[in-house]
Amino acid sequence: MPTIEIDDKVIEVKAGSTIIEAADSMGIPIPRFCYHKKLSVAANCRMCLVQVEKMGKPLPACATPVTDGMKVFTRSQFAVKAQKSVMEFLLINHPLDCPICDQGGECELQDIAVGYGASGSRYTEEKRVVLNKNIGPLISTDMTRCIQCTRCVRFLKEVGGMMELGMVGRGEHAEITAYVDKSVDSELSGNIIDLCPVGALTSKPFRYSARTWELIRRHSIAPHDGLGSPIEMHVKGNTVMRVLPREDEAINECWISDRDRYSYEALNSADRLTTPMIKDNGVWVETDWQSALEFAATRLNDIARNNPQDIGVLVSPNSTMEEAYLAKKLAQGLGCGNVDHRLRQSDFRLDSKHIGTVWMGCNISDVQSMERVLVIGSNLRNEHPLLTHRLRKAVKAGAELSLLNPIDDDPLMPVAHKTICAPDAMVNALAQILKAMSVMPRYAGHLSPAVSNLIDKVKVQSGPQSSAQAIAESLSGSSASVDLVAPRAAVLLGNIAVHHPRYAEIYSLGEAIAELCGASFGVLSEAANSVGADFAQVLPNADAMNARTMLESPRKGYLLVNVEPELDCHNAHLAAKAMAEAECVVALTVFKSEALRDADVLLPIAPFSETSGTFMNMEGRVQTFSAAVKPLGECRPAWKVLRVLGNVLNIPGFDFDSSEQVSREIFGGEDPSQLASNRLNNHLYDSGVRDAARVNDETPNILQRIGEISLYQADALVRRAAPLQKTKYAVPLAAYMHHAQLAQLGFQAGGAVTVSQGNGSVSLMAQIDDHVPIGCIRIAAALKETAALGDMFGPLEIKAVEIKAA
Amino acid sequence: MFNRIKDVLRSLMLVELLKGMMLTGRYLFARKITVQYPEERTPQSGRFRGLHALRLYPNGEERCIACKLCEAVCPALAITIESEQRDDGTRRTTRYDIDLTKCIFCGFCEESCPVDSIVETRVLDYHGEKRGDLLYTKPMLLEMGRKYETQIATDRTADAKFR
Fold first, then answer.
1. Which of A39, A75, A658, A736 has fewest C-beta within 10 Å?
2. What is the pTM of this model?
3. pLDDT tens-place string over residues B17-40
């Protein structure tokens, strides 16, 4: 390891590191604009010039690797003169509009200008002007302020995966621009706002609304996906003004997805429910908490007294552990075991087969060092925007990524092997992979009887399915030298796999594949607290009903905790029907929602920003957060509402004074992370499902729906975040199908079609999307426009709308 | 001993009293300079720091750009500003309140203003009849700016070389 000297301090650094890395580790400040620790080195701002002994010219610290015995001076007259000259050049064309610039007060250029800038300018000529670009609804631009550091360009290329911004022109004419008439659509685009060292890129929804020094920073956890990114909510008065990432190398590094960044816009939307409401003869009447709670308790109690099993409790997987736990406890107090948080799951055959709590099987930070990864059923960028970046890192470092998906959306990284097939062919495709693997000599002796039985039944298909062989080879690493002791491989199930009607088979086959090749196996959990709710046992009792059966055979009463039934459940039609038929629906909800039209009492609860609680993310990390602002209007944290509801119902054990007391009860006073590491386990008790797996089901010659949840429809908050709904991800609703499928059905692109599933049907426009396999039609779920349809994956009928002759 | 005798003689001859009466007598016959306020006023410095005003440009456009520096610098926390993007894309205040019961008339707001928008005028005789009258809002401050623009402009021009 080379030893160098910076400003007379000696340090030993890793060979190949740069001067700026060494200086940063010693806490010696070197001014910089273009350098960022997470991005490649560009060395084009020249602000980090330092003096190096025996060098005639100053050198950029960010691009100069250290050599043994190097002597660096960052504050010598020579270095400071160089830095000041660079600063003067940078300020020549930078406008002096700090008073109207949103970056004012948190601007790197402003800060460094205080240290290195002159008090006046010697430049009297005209400054250059660069026209602003419209790059979408999230980021506003003031390109005249740009100092061409290219951090945004490098971020979108290296982290975002697509080069959506670039620099055109030279010298005076150099400017950052997007493609002609294109916006920046990356699902991580908001990070370039944080990266921009000047005010060239600022947040559009936040524009001109507050100054950085007025904002109080409160820590929280992002509630939209299983990652649980730590965030910082910037609060003014009692309003969340914006959300920025906090840094945690193990979770989000220093980025957050746009979903986490802009969902705050929904927190004060007009849709917020602020007073309890009771439906009186079909008319909503505002009321006070006392009467609303008594009304809810009486109705629930009446049903429970007859038959407790007539009540169903549905909990949003985005609820905190405390809320979910209390909902479960409340149900048990009523004598009812019908509790579930797995609203979008449809196959529950694995219930009671799990040894522990299902999780992602490895740590989030391990993903980037994987060498071979198989992702089953996941539209990665849609479901896990930031985790996809970790995978992208792995692929960049040489990992082989294999995909088994019903849709061929580009994950913006090279995919080594992929099988794109209709949803009902996925099980067979997995079995093919397992079979291909089992014939490899290395694994020959390791097959359990259940697996060999199953494999015997698999008919090997040729043709497009032969990618199974390639995936099997890739996973077992037959082509490369493999570490057999600790193979860095993973098999990961995405949301599509979890929502799949044959999840049990996909899961057990995935597990078998992972076991065979020694890969880690896990599920990328969909919601912020899916793992946590599982952990807190917010699951149906042994003989009770799960989220699907609760709707299939409608209950008399429902308790909904932060659920919009037809948008959050697997089968929208069933959910709406069950709610309509129920005698009493008690809904704890953040928003007034059309989906809650059949509720009988609405209890306003606080969203994540207004309550304290705990989330357990997909790697089992327990993260507790407190409220950033006070609850709006009459809203109350859901754990308090459930606690008081428990009191009104006279259920013992509901004497909590704080959410900490609830979480202490959940963890039994033990260390949460210790307990989590004991309980997280993806193995199954037996391989019953594997035995019974119908691996050779012929693809029935009927059309199937692929009902994915689009990025900005995942939960109640993002659905109401106006800026997110204006992005390109808010894809117009249509029945998307392969062009050959369209021709086969005899439709015109853009023509109106009627899609029906079960009893419901909706009119949509037929559109071409060649990412959808033949035999499938992609119709987004979790939308009120498609709420009349049924299962997210399942057969459907489609016909052209006849145009009546005039 | 000597001093003691001197003191006794002084008090017997009422020297102190006469001295005082002399002063009174001098003022009795001197020229009277009572200012008949409010009809008459003493001269004011151009730098007088009285009631605030928000200035406008000659074309009627308000100067304030909602940079919030005055709000930040105000030692008495008397200024409250809320801002937004106006329809024409410019940065503007939606609320600009000065609580004159808090204000200490230090003039920092005026000094911090990059566009000479918030100024302290020479107006010193204003009052409020009930609680809340001294909370000056944006329309009131703009009205002050309209009314006294000529004088404000003259004062700033005269003082320009010292600023």
1. A658
2. 0.92
3. 999 999 999 999 999 888 998 899
